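> @MW can you paste both from yesterday?
MW: sure, first one:
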Amino acid sequence: MSIFKNSSIISYDAINNKPTTTDSLGHGTALASILIAPANKQTVHGVSPKVKLFDVKVLNDKGGGDVDDVINGINWSIKQDVDIINLSFGFQKYDKRLKHAIDKAIENNIVVIASAGNTLGLSTDYPAKYQNVISVSSVDKNLKRDKFAAKGKVDFVVPGVQVPVLTPLGKLETVNGTSFATAYVTGIVSNILSKNPKLERQDVLKILKSTARDLVKMRSMVTG
């Protein structure tokens, strides 16, 4: 992630078990730009640009993922004593080993945030579907649900349609999906914890709920 050379980033490739990563797909870079991109000519500015980012690669260059690699990445993150784990991907099937790894993270007071999934309005993906994981879905600028976004176990929705991000070459592009909506919530949680690092996970969740707006009411305000 050379375009973020002035940011604090620690990398780990959970697939190949090595301390460097490459992002041929651009998915991780796009997420990172939402979180930490400094002010730039492309008008992309990170939600939490001063956060220390742990860049953990668990998806292959085609965007596919293996549960074992995800578990490896989660366990590595726990050892690094991270405060937040952002999981911008999903699986359709329940996996007790993945659930165990996530429960272990939560027991260590880590806030786990996951994308609901781009399931064309079908059920929320795992791990967002697990209890105690903050699940995030996406809406457009009119606060309407993204037609590709999941329904079901959804805790929060944020913009996830035509989101401006940076590519690995530093160019601007727009993307859609709950993955990118999730990164916004991760940035918000990061800012909450930066002001009060001693907050417990449940306290963070209470703040998110107290500052969120009711989607139905907000939609009526927009549509008139």
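MW: second:
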Amino acid sequence: MKRIFARIAMVAAMLAGGLFFSPAAHAAGYGCGGSEIDSYAVKTSGGTVYGYIHLYYDSSTGKNCAVNVATAAGGAGTATVKNVYMARCVAGSTAGKGCSVDLTLYDPPFGSSTKFTSYAGPVSFNAAGRCILIGGAIASPAGNVGSYSSLATHCG
């Protein structure tokens, strides 16, 4: 009996310490290949961070990939609205400005009522020679919303 309680205590301590379910524990970036090249805070107007959008690039496939991962404040572990999108700007767009797009991918699909417990994504496509737009939102269990939306970025 003592052995069972000792094991339960050990597992509880590991969970509390984040050894399981931590962002670093997700090999290949939550379904994205390649290496993380940027991250963006998803936050409320008051500055509370509800999550981070992680952007990956895989040089072997030429694909960009994005996921939106909730923090504890953003309801990590609780099914809430979490979404991510990535759009490819038309050729000739300039970094730091708005752009016209020719492809946009969403997770969950635009208009869906799907709720996720930990993260939304991945969304992935090739954008060689183009800029991309990245964004997403997370609703806390209390219903507050944090968001992020970029201008044209990672051009090339």
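> thanks! The radius of gyration is 18 Å.
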